[in-house]
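Before drawing any conclusions, I needed to go through one protein's amino acid sequence and its backbone structure tokens, quoted below without any editing.
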Amino acid sequence: MSDATSAAATAISESGPIARELSDGVLRLTLNRPERRNSLSEEMMAGLQDALDAAAEDTAVRVILLRAEGNVFCAGHDLKEMTAARSHSDRGRVYFTEVMNRCARLMQTIVTHPKPVIAEVDGMATAAGLQLVASCDLAIASDRARFCTPGVNIGLFCSTPMVALSRNVSRKQAMEMLLTGEIIDASTAREFGLVNRVVPADYLAQVTAKYAETIASKSPLTLKIGKEAFYAQAEMSLADAYRHCAQVMVENMLARDAEEGIGAFIEKRTPEWTGE
């Protein structure tokens, strides 16, 4: 983070599994358990879910930047926590079901969130950690970032990470990662379409901040409308997608922010967004 950004930032919380910092419309959510490889433990998932839910209702938040402390972005599920549940009478079935449903809800919250979510990846993202990256709207990685779905190596196919992965990369590339469990570097992740850009580690925070600040300068209503329409049309046939998006465009044109934005463009001035 730049000195200017740091000085202008408002720390919301520095302790707990998720550190929060809000600055100029950009909410930085930091996975804050490096000693546990930022694994998606019950505590971590609950903290991230709470932070995302709160951000959805906070008009001061325009963009969310998801990052992590330490050299591991996220190591996936907490396998020690999950293994402990095998001692239950049902061998962990109820617990495993609850954890997977909680994780699925978290990932869907990111996709359906009214604010754009950007992953800032500096380190290893594995299994559900890769799923977390793939669920974000944008992902910027440092040149030392690494990615893999290694479940196949321990007898546990990465079936839920597969959902997000297969919606970002081609089927052949997704299956390559899922079947081999091998690590890919940041440049390969970019070739596959898993991340948007790869930058030197020293410039990662600066580049992601620039992306976040640029997006935060747009109309929050327009961003919400556009993100929602993007994911909705992606699941439709071509004809249905055009019908849906045509109606979205009509409603968007009737919004005050669209009227203001078009007027500002014609009058060669900076628009003033109201979010209406």
